[in-house]
Amino acid sequence: MAAHFVPPATQDNNDGWGPLGIPDRYKDMPYQPFSKMSEWAGGSSINYAFQDRKYGGGKYGGAGGSQYAYLHDEEENSFQLVDTARTPRPMYARGRFLRNQRLARGRQNFRNSQPVPLKGGKMKDNRMRQTRNKWNNRGPRQGQIQVKNRESSVIVQPSWKIIEEMDFPRLNKLSLRLTKEATDLLTCGELEFYDKQYDRVTVKNERRLQRIDRIFHKVTTTDDPIIRKLAKTEGNVYATDSILATLMCSIRSNYSWDIIVQKVGGKLFFDKRDDSEFDLLTVSETSNEPPQEEGINSPRNLALEATFINHNLSQQVLKMGEEKFKMEEPNPFISEDEVGEVASVAYRYRKWDLDGGVVLVARCEHDAVTVGSAGDTQFINIKALNEWDSRLSGGVEWRQKLDTQRGAVLANELKNNACKLAKWTVQALLANSDWIKFGYVSRMHLRDTSRHVILGTQQFRPSDFASQINLNMDNAWGILRCIIDLCMKEEDGKYLLVKDPNKPVIRLYKVPDNTFESDDEAFFEEGEEDE
User: In sequence order, what DSSP letters do the residues of 121-148 get, joined into one string?
Assistant: First the structure.
C-alpha cells in the first residue's frame, strides 16, 4: 500500500511575499536578530552574550543575544567598584623605605660587629677593585668621545677690534664664476723629471722613504722680490697659492689658522706670520675622532711628521742628478751658498681678473715635470698621504687594502683629511698643473715616526679630482672675493683673519700697525714714498 502524502497548509499572499501572520506557536516570543556573522551551530549560541560585550555587536550590529541574557537589575544598582591597584609613588619617594631599612640594618650591624682586616692578596684585590670603580665612575661613558677644546693659532689681544664675523653656512652659499682666464706674468726656477718607476710600487714591492736634505723656501707674500716688483705695475691684491688655498677652502677647516692682511694705498697684501705653523700639514683634521692624545700621535707631532714625509717624497720620486727643466728666470730665493741644495720647484706668477676692479696676483708652485705620451711637457704637483695608526684613523689598514681596494683607502683619506686634500687640489688648479700625484706612505713600525715606506702612488687630473671630492671652485672664488671686499672697505692699516679653533667662524680683527713687525715695514714705507 502506497504512503499517502498530505501537503502542509500554505497561505497565499496576494499583496506581497512572505507569511500573512505569525503562527500560534510563535506568539509572545521575542524576536532574536541575527547577522551574517552569526554561528548557526546550536552549541555556539551560548557564547553570544560574551561576544557582544567584547566586540560591541559585530560589524552589522545585530549579532547579539541580549534578549535571552539574564540581568541582575537589583544587584547591579547596588554594586560598587573597588580600585585595588597600587598607587604609584613619585620618583623621589621610590625605594625610600627600603633604603631606610638597609641603612638602619647597616648601622646596627656596624655596631654589633667588628671589621675583619684583609690580608695579603685579598687586600690587594679589594684596593684594585675600589680604584677601578673610582675611575669608571668619573670617566666618560663607553662610546662617548670627550673632545678637547682646541687652542687658537694666535693669542687674541683685548685691544684688537672685531670688524666682521663670517660663519661657514653663509660662506658656503657664495658663488663667483670667473669670466676671464688667468694669465702668466713670469715663471722662475728649475724642475727635475719625475721617475716613472715609482708608478709600479706596490705593497709587496714597497720602497723605503729616504731622507733627502734639501732646502724648501716658504717665503711669504711681502718678502717675495718678484711680487714687490709686480706690485708697482700689476694688480691690487697679492698672495701666495698656499694662502689663497687656505682662504678658498676655509669652510672645510676645523683647526685654527690666521692670516695677516695689510692694506696700503688701496692694495691688499695677504701674509703669514713669521713664527706661525701655517706651512705644517694637518693630519686627520676632519676625522670623526681627531687625534687628541699626547706623545708621538699628538696633532702637532703628526703635523711635523706629515710635513717631513711630504718634503722627502716630493724629491725622492725625481730623477736627481740628471738634466733639469729650466723656466724663464732662475729661482729668486737662492743665495750663493745654497746652489745645488735647493729642492726642485718652479714658481709661476699669475694674474686673475675678479671683476669690479679687483685684480689678483699670486705666486704658484710646481714640484716636477714629465713628458706626456705626445711628447709634450706636463707639470706635476706631488703630495704625500701618510698612515700613522689605522686603528685611530678609520680602521682601514693600507697594507691589506691598498693594492686591492685603493678606492676604500682614498675614501677614508677624503673623510679624515678633506681640508688638506681640497687645499692641494686648489693649489694645483691655481698653478695650472697637468697632474696631481699622491704617494701613500706608512710607518715601518707603529710607534716609530722616523722610518717610513712608500706603498704606492696614484695620480689625477686636478679638475677631475676636484669634481670627485665635491670641490666647487665657484664657491671658492666667491669666498675669496667676499673676504677681499670686506678688507677693501676698511681704511689703510693692518688686519688679521683668524679661524675660531672650536666654532665654524672666521673673524676679521683690526690690529695695531706694529703688531707682528717684520722686515716688510721698509717695503711698505718705500711703496708710500713712490706713490
Answer: HHHHHHHHHHHHHHHHHHSPPTT---PP
